[in-house]
Design brief:
81% of the residues lie in helices and 0% in strands. The protein has 109 residues and is mostly helical. It has one domain. The longest helix has 28 residues.
């Protein structure tokens, strides 16, 4: 149950951080305005809180593992939202990052 909770929290954190960064990007780069930027800043703040609910007590471990989630999640966001087409190297890099997440977070200690 702890692993499932942790994975759900990583998913929620990814939605908040990647979504927040995307909203800021849209507000600035696509000239959608201050409301988009403000919504992005709020979402990025939500990400910071979601990460605190991870069951592991070590900030460094959580943030290091989340880096891999962010890489894979960013590519997935690009595919779904921006119709980005990753190449084989993108998929390979994301897979390596996900393996890193699994090792960092869930290897026996």
């Amino acid at each position: 149950m702890t692993v499932i909770r942790s994975l759900v929290l990583f998913g929620l954190a990814a939605l908040a951080e990647i979504g927040g960064a995307w909203l800021v990007w849209q507000g600035v780069r696509e000239h959608r305005g201050l409301l988009w930027i403000a919504a992005g800043v709020v979402a990025l703040g939500v990400y910071g809180f979601v990460a605190t609910f991870q069951p592991d007590p070590n900030f460094g471990r959580i943030l290091a593992a989340y880096g891999g989630v962010f890489v894979a999640g960013s590519l997935a966001w690009g595919v779904v939202v921006d119709k980005f087409r990753p190449d084989a190297w993108d998929y390979t890099g994301a897979a390596i990052c996900v393996v890193g997440v699994l090792v960092i977070m869930y290897a026996p200690r």
